[in-house]
Recover the amino acids of this structure.
């Protein structure tokens, strides 16, 4: 490819580093990996052409170490750096440091990162171009202001800590008389969590759905959108299942949301791939939430329905290439879903579950794509985000995509760490999910683990007993002599039928 | 013929295994299976075919990974298992029965190494099942460790800012 | 799915058995596997809900044993049998035996199998509906007839054994004076190979391309085609690389070939999936070759560009479902390629290479689908066809599909048996292939192995030495004492540059 | 420091390996690499990072599978390797030199078990490199085994219909 980079450093790890390596290969670019001490054996280190040690495990000494990364890019002769997501991907100082070092940052220019990537600046931008925001206070409020604003925008309202996120200091208020005590509690939580008791107030959209629009902008003034993704299946603001298109978006709403997103990106002088997140209320009105000025975890669902390779586009756009197609050429075909596989125990409040991967089978076959950083023997540590891989399923329609995803999840075996795979299986079998009827409160409201089917317990008991029975014994005394169990004649019908109807 | 007690999670199955004309006859509860058993090469993977009769050509196919700690993954679902010779199990039962009595203290342990960011209860406090006792940061996330049952906090052994190891006791509930 | 089977027996092994299991899962059908003694640990046995032993390894005692398969289908309570490809898939007696046993054969009705699946009957059918055949004799010829016919159709001509295939008894003749000795040799070869010295004569199309059309027919009279596949990269009539669309087919030719194929299938009273193979000459004229009355190895490339799951359709059509779309709804999107991975040594005349799989990494990521029966620890035996898996790559255009395929082939690691992966890498990097300029003689003409790049030899030497050096030694004497090698100062520039430009 | 002769296919490399401040210094021909070497768990897989200097942070990443027979798969390409201490290699060289002389007989062996379907030459026949000596059926295909060089067939040890084992001598060429 003419004028594209010959060598790109990937300042990330895990599945996204592998994903970027693949995009580099597809462009004939030599990928360079960086890694922390615990990642020496990681897949991205082995799949890259070159690999450089960043430093110890803690992110700030490795994947967040700006100086070190730029130094290594120079050593390796990389002309550009792809930051993946997380880590330094939306860090304007990093983008500036790259520019100073004469290295291309594969992402938006620093000014656009600041204008679109920072939450308050982005809201200001949205307001300026006339994209609706969730009604509420402009910033921190006094108790009196809160009461007045709540009256204006109507109940229910939500109080949020101005200094933080993650649900801390958040209170939902359904009537004026609840407001004073809710404010008191929210301020006290905010103070203890963030050392700052400022709160702001917003209309509480309930039920709400999280819908976002993927955008690509080239450096020559062309911006197009690639349709939406629905990401309402989440817990504690962590997305778990995404899809494209959204079950609640029709062509008119798609065009409207797309235009809103493009207006914001154009106003920010944005170049490269980015996403505009919206909250959609039960009346299908949408409100601007934030801009993600990077590639997102869930980008593959858009790739599967549009046919466009977003990471390849990122690299080409960063090299100054023009978008080769227009808005009218973007056609969504079929339906795609993504399930994120985390090393978390869904039956125990999604607690992280580190450990060594002792057996692994990743799904494959028609309609299935797996973006993974997993390998047999891998030690999943607690140093980084627990996401291990993503299963992406495409089908001609949502029903087919769900059927294929279920088949893939049933094939997927990760032994060692516990994973969210059983969670996904249960959600995808839930008639509410299958009907497209869910919102951002779905997991909190409905998820309570799934009982293990009786036939699996019996199978496990039989397998464990037979394995033990046939295993060479070190201590002879461990294996019991012949027992006295009374055997019934071949009574098989009942259990047999149960085992068969899997 | 050997007689086992197999614990799967919090369930117990009595399983009898007999070698019979080259195969295995397995009795679990009042059902009988004839089993073609294979240990797969190159991975800790077992394959069983459960047949309805000794001469049957085939039946239900069960593939299951077994890790070193005895955790099995039928259908990819992790299940902790333990196999005991039935007589040993009976002895243990008796011992446990003697120890029994309700309200034994429960230790809340760290399920992974991490950093304590918050402690949600103090000694002497009565808590309900689900009450958050300790918040532990690991894998870039805050993880709430909550009371496994109603009870009174007897001891809190950690404070915010403290790094803890896997398995370390954080609090004791009685 | 209403009225679909609840349990289907798959009378096959390897990747196609796994492929059919996946289709069953997607339809909510319980898949039942059968296996020969050497396949006890095979993936299809483990992925199925139930598995039944057929018998010893030899195909005629296992996968070709009609009675045994039908008996097991009864035992398992399967309502239908999917035969895959090869083995019993085009065996009309098997289809009839199924019908007699009250089991649905997932394939065409026996009469259609005979009318379309047998070579001479199919040619008669093609002639009847006016589809062009390669000019030549209708059947066996005497030497005098051969001379006369060759004069009529024009040289070059080809003499073929009437009783067999596989290139035995075949002779290409470029002028009348070569004909007598060619006939003598061909008859003698045919006699020793098939016990029958009958030969027929045909115009020799050279260069020729192999292009085939995928067809679906329901039991209610609707037949549609799903465009073409090009399969010209082959050796000894064994296909190695396929793609859809074909680089030489334009919409007009596609419509024309599609209509020709449909005419034949309609005339045969065909139901289910089938393929019509054509030879296309340098003038882009096409000639009927044969009908494949089954699912084909290369079906995934059609699936990737049309979005239609052909195996799912086979099952639904066998259950009496109507096709849900019309010809106008079939839209080819992008480009798909398939590379077949055989346990054969491409550097040694494609000799079979059995052995145990000691390490395995299958490719994944954007645009890649792998249909595979491979697993770690597998013993590849000499009992069956040596095809292990297929890599399928999709891209928005042929260039992108090739780039992705190359990336996938570079990721693919099978240690143990030698495979055709290095062959595929070389062909896909050949500018002739990339330009779409090849024909059925490509492999014979151009393939002569590829020299191992010097940098790989150096890497292997270094890795072997370091591995040996660091390996714990059983016999202490084996590890030499300190040597006397004179070291040069850090001379790295030359080799370093070579190693880097991979 | 240790000095090796490494055969890779029909090529030979002299490789010196020295342990140096926790890493490995490797000299091959006149080039020097500093190597970070890791043996991967759960599979016979090696990972090497070839660095240009002893203090370099990184360099070329080489992942390679090594099977039990010493076959390596750099870039997935199977290469038979053999490592010998340099002194042993030198001794072997001398022994070989003594044995040498051209025209030693070549045995054509079965590369896999199979069934002989055709024999393409008879004793005494002069054949060219590539002449088909034996056709062996395996994996549902006919596989042609041809003369590795020009020569005269000294012996044909099989006949059509005969089943042969892996490694069995089919014909001898001189």
């Amino acid at each position: 490819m003419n004028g594209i980079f010959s060598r790109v450093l990937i300042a990330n790890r895990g599945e996204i580093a592998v994903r970027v390596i693949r995009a580099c290969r597809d462009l004939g670019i030599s990928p360079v990996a960086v890694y922390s001490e615990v990642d020496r054996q990681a897949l991205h280190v082995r799949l890259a052409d070159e690999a450089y040690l960043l430093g110890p495990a803690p992110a700030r000494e490795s994947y967040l170490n700006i100086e070190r990364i730029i130094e290594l890019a120079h050593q390796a002769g990389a002309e550009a750096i792809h930051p993946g997501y997380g880590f330094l991907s939306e860090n304007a100082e990093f983008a500036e440091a790259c520019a100073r070092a004469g290295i291309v940052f594969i992402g938006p220019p620093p000014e656009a990162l600041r204008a679109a990537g920072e939450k308050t600046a982005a809201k200001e931008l949205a307001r300026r171009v006339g994209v609706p925001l969730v009604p509420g206070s402009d910033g921190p409020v006094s108790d009196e202001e809160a009461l007045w604003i709540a009256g204006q925008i109507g109940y229910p309202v939500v109080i949020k800590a101005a200094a933080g996120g993650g649900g801390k200091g958040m209170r939902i208020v359904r009537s004026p008389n609840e407001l004073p005590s809710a404010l008191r509690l929210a301020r006290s939580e905010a103070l203890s969590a963030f050392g700052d008791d400022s709160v702001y107030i917003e209309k509480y959209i309930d039920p709400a759905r999280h819908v976002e629009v993927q955008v690509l902008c080239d450096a020559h003034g062309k911006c197009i959108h690639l349709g939406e993704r629905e990401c309402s299946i989440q817990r504690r603001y962590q997305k778990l299942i995404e899809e494209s298109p959204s079950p609640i978006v029709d062509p008119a709403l798609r065009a409207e949301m797309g235009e809103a997103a493009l207006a914001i990106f154009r106003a920010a002088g944005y170049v490269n791939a980015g996403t505009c997140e919206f909250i959609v209320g039960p009346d299908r009105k949408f409100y601007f939430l934030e801009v993600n000025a990077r590639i997102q975890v869930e980008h593959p669902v858009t790739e599967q329905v549009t046919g466009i390779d977003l990471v390849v586009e990122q690299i080409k756009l960063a090299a100054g290439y023009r978008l080769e197609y227009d808005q009218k050429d973007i056609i969504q075909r079929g339906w795609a879903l993504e399930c994120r596989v985390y090393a978390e125990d869904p039956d125990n409040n999604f607690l992280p579950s580190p450990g060594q991967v002792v057996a692994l089978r990743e799904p494959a076959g028609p309609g299935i794509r797996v973006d993974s950083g997993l390998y047999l023997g891998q030690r999943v540590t607690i140093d980084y985000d627990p996401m291990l891989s993503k299963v992406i399923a495409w089908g001609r329609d949502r029903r087919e995509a769900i059927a294929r995803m279920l088949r893939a999840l049933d094939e997927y075996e990760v032994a060692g760490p516990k994973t969210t795979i059983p969670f996904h299986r249960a959600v995808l079998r839930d008639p509410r999910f299958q009907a497209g009827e869910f919102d951002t409160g779905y997991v909190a409201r409905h998820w309570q683990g799934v009982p293990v089917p009786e036939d699996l317990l019996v199978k496990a008991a039989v397998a464990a007993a037979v394995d033990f029975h046939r295993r060479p014994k070190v201590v002879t005394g461990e294996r019991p002599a012949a027992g006295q169990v009374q055997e019934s004649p071949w009574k098989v019908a009942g259990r047999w039928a149960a085992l068969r109807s899997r | 013929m050997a007689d086992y007690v197999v614990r799967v999670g919090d369930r117990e199955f009595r399983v009898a295994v007999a070698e019979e004309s080259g195969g295995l006859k397995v009795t679990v509860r009042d059902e009988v299976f004839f089993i073609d058993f294979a240990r797969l090469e190159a991975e800790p993977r077992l394959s069983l075919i459960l047949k309805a009769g000794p001469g049957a050509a085939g039946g239900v196919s069960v593939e299951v990974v077994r890790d070193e700690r005895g955790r099995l993954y039928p259908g990819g679902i992790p299940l902790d298992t333990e196999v005991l010779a039935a007589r040993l199990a009976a002895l243990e039962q008796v011992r446990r029965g003697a120890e029994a009595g309700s309200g034994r203290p429960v230790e809340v342990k760290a399920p992974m190494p991490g950093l304590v960011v918050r402690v949600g209860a103090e000694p002497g406090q009565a808590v309900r099942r689900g009450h958050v006792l300790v918040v532990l940061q690991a894998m870039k996330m805050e993880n709430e460790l909550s009371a496994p049952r109603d009870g009174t906090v007897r001891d809190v052994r950690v404070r915010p800012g403290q790094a803890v190891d896997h398995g370390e006791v954080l609090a004791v509930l009685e």
Observations:
- Chain A has four domains: 7-106, 107-129+207-333, 135-203, 343-502.
